[in-house]
């Protein structure tokens, strides 16, 4: 008999998982919320109060908004390093939206919410409309108003040609992120941004060699499959 004296790993309790979802580390929050949703589905009943679910939901929506703006503004930049940063911001935005919906699933019926996530993630106003109708009936008015402001017009059109000041601000934000991939992409973007003030912020950031190699592969792939919009971003960055 293998591992006869070994106990099976103990599953985390809802209280333990709720502690994880309050972490500043987005990866830990992602794991915590994923675990809570699994418990919710197995239990067949809410495992968090609606007030807690709403707080967690709004926190993740705030991060979604903060990541989506640079993702849209930088996606057509001429430099592959900056487009890679835009891609990373887009991934972070999508993960934030996923966590937001998972937070709601802790207190509400999960199955319809999975469809809500896909519709909102599309960025298409027509696709998002049924999801917004569902959320308007589900959520308190004050909470839904925040959702509506974000999604009722679809994803905002990207601001082509974001200036150097915007790029520098978004690089700084990424460099202070708890997401290692986003930080590594920001270091690459900082190397081509003509802003001396970035140097003291970039210098202490340590990127593991294996992660740096992965971002280089992603940068090369981005350069070889350049967006048809590439070149419409500012060249002075």
Set down the secondary structure blueprint:
Elements: H1 14-21, H2 26-43, H3 50-74, H4 80-105, H5 110-121, H6 125-138, H7 141-151, H8 164-175, H9 180-192, H10 199-202, H11 209-224
- Shape verdict: globular
How much β-strand is present in the residues?
under 5%
Which bin fits the share of residues in helices? 55-70%
| Structural class by helix and strand composition | mainly alpha
Query: How many strands, what sense, and barrel or not for the largest sheet?
Result: none
Q: What is the terminal separation in angstroms?
A: 64 Å
**Residue-averaged pLDDT, rounded?**
85
| SSE string, helices as H and strands as E | HHHHHHHHHHH
Total domain count: 1
Q: Supply Rg.
A: 20 Å
Total beta strand runs: 0
Please give the count of helices. 11
The low-confidence runs, each spanning 5 or more residues with pLDDT under 50, are 1-9, 227-237
Fold and architecture overview:
The chain is built from eleven helices and no strands. With 237 residues, it is mainly α. Mean pLDDT is 85; it is low at 1-9 and 227-237. α8 (164-175) runs antiparallel to α9 (180-192). It has one domain (44-156, 163-225).
Summary?
The chain is mainly alpha-helical and 237 residues long.
Features of the shown structure:
11 helices, single chain, disordered C terminus, globular, mainly alpha, disordered N terminus
């Amino acid at each position: 008999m293998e591992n006869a004296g070994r106990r099976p790993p103990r599953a985390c309790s809802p209280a333990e998982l709720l502690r994880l979802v309050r972490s500043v580390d987005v990866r830990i929050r992602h794991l915590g919320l994923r675990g809570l949703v699994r418990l919710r589905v197995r239990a067949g009943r809410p495992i968090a109060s609606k007030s807690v679910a709403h707080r967690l939901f709004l926190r993740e929506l705030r991060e979604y908004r903060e990541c989506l703006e640079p993702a849209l503004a930088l996606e057509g930049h001429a430099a592959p390093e900056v487009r890679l940063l835009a891609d990373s911001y887009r991934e972070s935005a999508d993960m934030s939206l996923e966590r937001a919906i998972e937070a709601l699933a802790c207190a509400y019926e999960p199955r319809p919410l999975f469809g809500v996530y896909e519709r909102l993630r599309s960025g298409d106003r027509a696709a998002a409309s049924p999801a917004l109708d569902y959320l308007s009936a589900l959520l308190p008015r004050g909470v839904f108003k925040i959702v509506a402001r974000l999604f009722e017009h679809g994803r905002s059109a990207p601001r082509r040609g974001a200036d150097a000041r915007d790029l520098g601000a978004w690089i700084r934000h990424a460099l202070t992120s708890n997401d290692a991939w986003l930080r590594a992409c920001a270091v690459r973007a900082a190397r081509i941004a003509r802003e001396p003030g970035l140097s003291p912020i970039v210098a202490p950031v340590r990127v593991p060699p294996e992660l740096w190699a992965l971002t280089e592969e992603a940068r090369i792939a981005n350069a070889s499959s350049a967006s048809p919009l590439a070149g419409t971003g500012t060249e002075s960055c």
